[in-house]
Amino acid sequence: MSAKAQIEALLALINNAAHQAIAEYDKAGKEVPTLDSVEPHPLDISDDTSGLKKAIRLLEGACEQLCVTLAPPSHTITKRTQNCDWPCIMAVIEARVPDILAGHPGGLHVDELSKKIDIDAGKLSRILRFLAARHCFTEVDADVFSNNRLSLMLHSANPIRDLAYIQLNSNIQASTVLWENLTTQPYTRSHELHDAPLMQALQFKGSYYEWIESQPEKRPTFQRAMVGFGQVAGSRCVFYDYNWDGCKTLCDLGSGVGNFSMPLARLHPEIHVSMLDLPGPMAQARALWAQEYPTAIEEKRVEFIEGDFLRPLSVKDQDIYYVPNCLHNWSDDAALVILENICQAMGSHSRLLVHDSIIRPLTRTPGKRVDIDEAPGPLLPNFGIGSARSHNLDITMLLAFNTSERTLDELKNLATKAGLVMEGVLDMVEMCMLEFRVAA
């Protein structure tokens, strides 16, 4: 296909994807919000967003490929190397700028804002203008800024803010030693958690989880960040995209406080939920459920079990074993142990659901069965930048854990070694859910 033909095809994909996205907003009963809006749209807080996410994935991939095709290479490369989003976002998070502007819906002059946060007005205006040019904040008049849809994501009450804070803090520190970590001993060939770039940068002798445990003041931020990640990734799409008929018992492994289990228990009171995690998270889970959903405890529909999925499981013969965003935190050897422990606990009727990000292939193999969505040409088969979050997560895992996101084949191979057989894949755009049974 010629470059001109590719451009025409990309334009058609962009047009179709944009109209698909508009249709999703219309289905929600409210038109597409303007960028300067501060009112949440129903889709902003909806759990069932697979349709919108599919449209945006296609739209982002096609728009980026169109721009890269038409722009001179020097333009694209220098634009990427001059990215200053992260220091500016970090500055407004630390200064709580969105919180202050929330009290000034008409906007606040940078001179007044600078007095409230004790930052030079000239420097502050440049940071805010940089972000406003990217539609985060609105400059309503010269040097007068207000919140908008994007900046409100950085308000201290929003878990997306905590997610951004955690990721920026960790990745910035780890990135400063990445090259050294890749090329010097003892790190270069190591896949141990304690040899991750972040641990090297922090000079901490342990894993990321041990580092978090050593700093109790950071735990609430980390927990809220995980809530934010679930929102961004559309983790709750699983409640609507998976068929829960016939499920009476479920074990949520590495459950934390129950970000998955609590909404599931509300939607499906017929399912008995066993949450399994380390003692610390389980203590927090008991307190949270006692406050927010005591009925489930009173009716004995939820059980809190202290355990470690790296050891044999005490919860046997559940209809479903659910593993959310856990395997990517572990090396192949450790992930295999986790899967083997689950397999040994499963009955013949049991199913394992692995809910995680998948690295999609960048090449097309004629005749090969494809179990997850593949982008139409001339897009890259993985949707290009439309699947950027999985690659961002992959590098984040490298930086913080010395691990990786996996391809579908890599996960299937691990499961096969553990005695499991894949039954199917549910592609939910940001994440996938793989269903396994015990091999005959």
From TrEMBL:
Residues 88-155 form the O-methyltransferase dimerisation domain. One of its GO terms (molecular function) is protein dimerization activity. Pfam families: Dimerisation, Methyltransf_2. Residues 207-419 form the O-methyltransferase C-terminal domain. Keywords: Methyltransferase, S-adenosyl-L-methionine, Transferase. One of its GO terms (biological process) is methylation. This is S-adenosyl-L-methionine-dependent methyltransferase. It comes from Mycena maculata.
